Amino acid sequence: MKMMNSYPLVLLLIFSHTSTTMAQSPAAAPTGPATPSTVASPAPVPSSPPTDIIRILKKARGFTTLIRLLQATQVSNQINSQLLTSNGGLTLFAPNDNAFSSLKPGFLNSLNDQQKNELIQFHLLPTFVSISNFDTLSNPVRTQAGENPDRLALNITSSGGNQVNMTTGIVNVTLGGTVYTDHQLAVYQVDKVLLPRDFFEAKPPAPSPSPETPKASKDKSSDTTATPADDALSSAITVKHPLLVSLSAVALLASAFTW
Question: Annotated region Disordered: where (predicted)?
C-alpha cells in the first residue's frame, strides 16, 4: 500500500526534473578570435602639374603674339625647363597684343631668328622678383638677353611697388598688373614691347684682317743671275775678240815698216 502511494510521487519528481532541464537555454557556442577590420589607406594627393607658361598666358588671354613668339623661338620650353631645375625662379614682362600692334608695321618680320630670340630673352629676368621688390634691384638690371650693358641695358625704377617704370634707351614702359605669380614665376603685363638698343644702333664693324707683310725685295747687287742683255753682251765680246787681235797685229807691222 505504501509502494502504491510513492509511485506517483516518483513520476512527479522525474517530470519536474525533465521540465527544468529542457527549460534551460543551451550553452552558447564558442566563438573564434575577432577578425581585425581592414583600415582604408588615404587616397594619394595628386601632385600639381608642372608650370606651363603657354597655359598661363592662354588662360590670361590677350597674349596671342607673345605666345607665338615663345613657341617659335622655343623659349617657352626653356622657361618651363628652368623652373624645374632652378631655385632662383624667373620673371617675365609680358607685352599684350596691343603692345605688339603699336610696333612699326613689319618690324617682327624684319627680325631674323636670332634677333627674335634675343627680343624674348630681353623680357626675362633670371630671378623671381615680387611686385614690392623692384626697388631693390640695381641698374642696369641683368636680363637673359646678354651682358652688354650699353646695347642690352634695362633700367627699372620703382616707388615701393606702387608704380614700376622701365626704360631701354629706346622706349619707356610702365608695368601693369600681375598676370601670374606662384613665388617661383612672376608674369607682369607691360604696355609696350621692350626694344633693346642693340636693334637700332649700328654695331661697330668687325676688325679688318691685318695686311700681309710685303715680301722683301731682292738685292740687285747680290743677284748673280744672268739676264738676256748680259748674255748678248758676252756673246758680242766673244765674237769681236779675234778681230781686235788682228787689228792690233796689223798696227804693229805698219809701225815696223815705217820705222
Answer: 24-47, 201-229
Who contacts 130 (Cβ-Cβ below 8 Å, separation ≥6)? 181, 186
User: Across 51-209, where does the E strand assignment appear?
Assistant: 90-95, 124-125, 155-158, 164-167, 172-181, 185-190
Residue-wise pLDDT for 54-66, tens only, equals: 999 999 999 999 9
Helix or strand holding residue 68 (H, E): helix 64-73
Rounded Cα distance between 173 and 237, Å, is 95
- CATH code where residue 67 lies: 2.30.180.10
Residue 259 CA to residue 255 CA, distance in Å, equals 6
Query: Can you give the residue range of the structural domain that contains 114?
Result: 53-193
Q: What is the pLDDT of residues 122-131, one digit of tens each?
A: 999 999 999 9
